């Protein structure tokens, strides 16, 4: 029997193997050190991921979450570009390669893959993990510093996942401009915080100015209707917790929800959703309240009641981040 294993399961197993032989206490200490570093001043002048222990801790602790967030963003993008498959992929600030795993989980097949990062230990571990994924075995893991002199080779898809946060404003601009020059499609993911959203908005503006159309999450490429400072657009991806997570964070929940903000944009025509659910739907007796971002460049709360029949049943199933109304073709 030929049982195919998904990239998500393969990644989980490869990350589990990483911690084999590392005493749990040591792994937890490495994670704690890393979290403390990330709470310090970023951007930094030198890589935060300095050695294998740092990188193994980063990968085991954060990679399932960044992988989950990028998968959600790519899924929304793939829905808006149904006939498109990337023929090549560059992941900038790719670290241990979470976004390359997410691309391989979203689109079948193999393609030339390049991962760029300034932290050699991260690239080395990424290469090691990628040996378990047939779609990534030929990937190139290259050292590169993001800065004013960054130039990228052409690629169908350029991803930038959880990187803008680590860069000064001028380097963020240089990175987004380089991605826009090199890519037919660009997907940028950040933490789902007000600051993460602000960085995504800044990148979105640059991509639109460079001639890109927004494919997701927005229903349009015009200005975001959120009044700055009043709210922030973000989404949530459910991620299974590893034993390392439970050890570091305590608690017994088998999962956690990774909040993220993102923009996916392309140079080619895309079909954004008519509107998107931008908050967790509130289910009340006989009605569902949906907060929507709409094609008319506005936010709206709509109430779907039992009287709406089929639509009401769909609203009860709707999740934060879903298109609305649901796609009834297919
Ligand atoms: C939070 S990690 C994200 C890694 C990966 N993209 C992911 O989603 O899991 C940020 C990455 O950006 C890289 N990075 C930060 N500043 C950089 C710079 N100036 N040049 C190159 N890489 C940089 C770091 O080394 C690290 O691997």
From TrEMBL:
Keywords: Iron, Iron-sulfur, Metal-binding, Transit peptide. Signal peptide: none annotated. It comes from the Bacteria. It comes from Streptomyces vulcanius. InterPro entries: Mt_RNA_Methyltransferase, Ribosomal_Rsm22-like, SAM-dependent_MTases_sf. This is Small ribosomal subunit Rsm22 family protein. PANTHER family: 37S RIBOSOMAL PROTEIN S22, METHYLTRANSFERASE-LIKE PROTEIN 17, MITOCHONDRIAL. Gene3D superfamilies: Vaccinia Virus protein VP39.
